[in-house]
Please model this.
Amino acid sequence: MLELTGINAAYGDVHVLYDLSLRVGEGEIVAFLGANGAGKTTTLWTISGLLKPLSGRVVFDGRDLLRLPGHRLPDLGIAHVPQGRGVFQTLNVLENLMVGAYSHRAKADRKQTLEMVFGLFPRLYERQKQEARTLSGGEQQMLAIGRALMLKPRLLMLDEPSLGLAPVVVETVFQKIVEIGQTGVAILLVEQNLAQALSVAHRGYVLETGRITLQGTTAELQGNQYVKEAYLGL
Ligand code: ATP
Model:
């Protein structure tokens, strides 16, 4: 479905991604793991067309995304929930969700999609009229994810959904990620929180200073001695 091959990317003179290759298959949850500053967000920006790489290919369903303008991605079925959530603070929950269904493929079905999102996140249903800025951090994260789902994506890219949330709220968010995955949406899950991300993913990649140093199934990564020592504190 999504395939990155040999991506090199830089901000001016600062080289950030080195020969990065990764793949997300249909309906898969793939964890993209690494510490602060490893280049995870830069990778998502590259996929979304916000940063043009120096070299490499980004292919989605056989289409070369680097040749398409970034604003076309929602029409292809790719949704990106950026770090920090990015909901419209002064719009209420319902307005934020409706704004999310802006692509051609999503607009026609937005009433049914809204029901699906409310089914997944009953809290958003209860708080439809509440301004986004007055929601808790966890509710804002759910709203950001709900808004992305309004695009009816086939691939959902989540940039550190656990950031800044209390552990019990993180549990809920990850449970929702599993439920979304069960509906057939593929998910590229960027996380610093390795243990949590691996608890929901099928496969994963570990990125260290711009290079993928490890990849494998969840079981392989969980059993890897280096991962245990460096990331899981075991
Ligand atoms: P985090 O988990 O902290 O978000 P990350 O893995 O997502 O980290 P990136 O945000 O992709 O990492 O950053 C990778 C590197 O690129 C870092 O060294 C960062 O300082 C640098 N960088 C990011 N954005 C820019 C920018 N706009 N200009 C210059 N350098 C940048």
Q: What stands out?
A: The pocket of adenosine-5'-triphosphate is lined by residues 11, 14, 16, 34, 36-42, 83, 192 (CB under 6 Å). The radius of gyration is 17 Å. Residues 203 and 217 are 4 Å apart (CA to CA).
